[in-house]
Amino acid sequence: MLATLLAILSTVAAPADVKTPSTARYALEVSVVSDGVETVAARSLIQEDGQTEISVSDGQGFFLLNAELTVVEEDGTDSKLGLFINIDHGDHLKSSPTMTFRRGGQARMVTGAPDYRLSLEVSPVTP
User: What pTM was estimated for this model as a whole?
Assistant: First the structure.
């Protein structure tokens, strides 16, 4: 009887919805400002060791972003993530930026020229 009770308690003590690092999700937010006007604003979810794609027709052409989020091992630890991105925005931008940040953290990048700005932000999604 005691063994049955301990088995039940061990099942109850470990919630089923606990996120392990390999299933952590992040929000990827993208914004494009062209000549002072925001022409693209999109948000997508990406999971560790996963991929996402954002495609938008913005009136100036087609905007396509592909991203991959992977664990980056440095000094034998896996506490950092790498976000590898490919962007194609017609004549405006073709780029492959990379962002590295702490697992569970957030990062932001802004690039471009005075008349064309691309901003990317990644942050953890909390349940």
Answer: 0.76
